[in-house]
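Bumping with the actual sequence this time:
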Amino acid sequence: MSIQRMTRINEEIKRELSQLISYEIKDPRVNATMISVVGVETTNDLKTSKVYISVLQDQKKEDVINGLSAAQGFIRKEIARRINLRNTPEFIFKLDESIEYGMHMSKMIQDVMKDSDK
């Protein structure tokens, strides 16, 4: 499968998953206000997709991942209904900490800059 087609599929899955998480998953562990789908990596055979989730709230991150994993049947069914693919992949939800890490590094840089101005 071409790289362009895989990129398009990943972006489509990412967009639909964002919609599902924001508006349709009713699991209380998945409080959608501060959850974002950062990236999706689907295998060429469309069997599995790694979904990178960022949680920007002080809620328990593992609870969010567990809630999404518990809703996997519903998520697969909805993705199959919304996206016309030969196979609907199985989703593996992973925590992406890069946004938090970037915010932490920015704060450290600001602190160093404040100290150097004195």
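The tokens above came from a reply further down the thread. The beta strands are 35-42, 48-55, 90-95.
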